[in-house]
Amino acid sequence: MISIAFAVLATLLSAAAWSQGKSAADGIAEYRKLLEDGNPAELFEAKGEDLWSRKRGPRNASLEACDLGKGPGVVKGAFVELPRFFADTGRVMDLETRLVHCMQSLQGFDAAAIAATPFGRGEMANVTALATWVASASRGLRFNLSQAHPEERRSYEIGKRTFFFRAGTHDFACATCHATDGKRIRLQDLPNLTRNPGDGVGFAAWPAYRVSNGEMWGMQLRLNDCYRQQRFPYPGFGSEVTVALATYMGVNARGAQSIAPAIKR
User: Fold this and answer.
1) Is 220 in the same domain as 257?
2) What is the number of domains present in the chain?
3) CB–CB of 119/221 below 8 Å?
4) Which domain holds residue 12?
């Protein structure tokens, strides 16, 4: 019911904005502004912070020694530099896959079992909460993904090719919606993700709370749903293609200010 009420509010504000000569985007922006102080993402942040320090799993350990790229236990600033290459795994990892790695290596959880768990359930829900908290620690910082390692550059190129790859029953690609300026679907603006779309836009806004379904979405779920809309098969959680797409968008967003966790329609 809350989601329906928010959707109605968004529609009313958009109509009011139109009557005053403003764009629908202005109305949606006003609606989001009204909700900022009560963003339910704060609840997920609190849960994630608790999970980070709580001893759990077969090894009864916390995640406080987890290295997100800036040293064991360092959280602030890590989010805006991910995905990145990790020498201990020999591959490029995004925030969510790195958290699952730490849950396995430090706490003893089964990473494959977590990856196979549907979004929003069990330990996958905990991964989302953890990602929300980690992202919140870098709110206001600017994205600066590395391309120093060959694997980071390789990931970017794979992401770029994937972004423009057209297939499926509708011959869609990520680029169909997100490669030009001025596009929108219904009342939703579609940012151009082939370059820096601006502060808090696109990659710089996720994880985000989705008002329409009352759920917290990380980038892995965001990409999963994009594939659904393209009528592609669902990608596996933490697959190379999803991490590569995040690398491509993250590098393109260099210099953009993070507002994650944001609030979305």
Assistant:
1) yes
2) 2
3) yes
4) 1-37
On average, the pLDDT of the chain sits at 90
Give the per-residue pLDDT at 32. 60
> pLDDT tens-digit profile of 58-116?
999 999 999 999 999 999 999 999 999 999 999 999 999 999 999 999 999 999 999 99
Please say if 226 is a catalytic residue. yes
Residues 10, 67 share a domain: no
Same domain assignment for residues 32 and 43 = no
Residue 125 belongs to domain with CATH number? 1.10.760.10
State if pTM tops 0.85.
yes
> HSE of 154 in the Cβ direction (CA atoms, 13 Å)?
9
Q: Quick one: CA torsion of 17, 21, 25, 26, rounded to 10 degrees?
A: -60
Question: Is residue 151 classed exposed, middle or buried when 0-12, 13-18 and 19+ CB atoms within 10 A define those classes?
Answer: middle
Residues 21 and 103 in one domain: no
Kindly tell me if the per-residue pLDDT of 24 is higher than 90.
no
The CA distance from 8 to 160, in Å, is 37
**pLDDT (mean) for 236-250:** 97
Contacts of the segment 162-167: beta carbons below 8 A, 24+ positions apart: 162/241, 162/244, 162/245, 162/248, 163/193, 163/194, 163/245, 163/248, 163/249, 167/232
Q: 66, 102, 174, 226: which one is catalytic? A: 226
